[in-house]
Amino acid sequence: MSGTPITSPSDQQSSEGSDPSLQSPLQPSEESRSSLSPSQSDTQSAPATMSFQPLNPRPFLQARVGTEVLIRLKWGQTEYKGILESVDSYMNALLRDTEEFIDGKSTGVLGLVLIRCNNILWIGSADSVEMTDMELK
Known about the structure:
GO terms for molecular function: RNA binding. Pfam families: LSM. The protein is an alpha+beta fold and 137 residues long. The protein has 4 helices and 5 strands; from the N terminus they run H-H-H-H-E-E-E-E-E. It has a 5-stranded antiparallel sheet with strand order 4-3-2-1-5, covered by helices on one side. The protein is elongated, with a radius of gyration of 30 Å.
């Protein structure tokens, strides 16, 4: 009976806190707990000018329905200019009175065109974008 001393669970918890190798893997250490919650000084030191707020494109597109837009495709130098008829939840675009431009030159009027969402590089109001500004360098 003079072997190992008998310890209570409270004695084991206090000894686990002192030796990090004895801590339960399910319980975070003091260092990790303090690093998970930001301190007040961390949140106050971040400059407001460096923050980035992502914008939802749906209100922009819904506001452009019924107006003339310019859509640039990912592939080649192809743009479509027409009246935005509708946009769905996937951001597929339906244009009417559509004119196609390849390398900045008009190839003709196509009429009603559906452009699948994954082909679109960007969409802009036609009155704010000039054809010469669309060249990628």
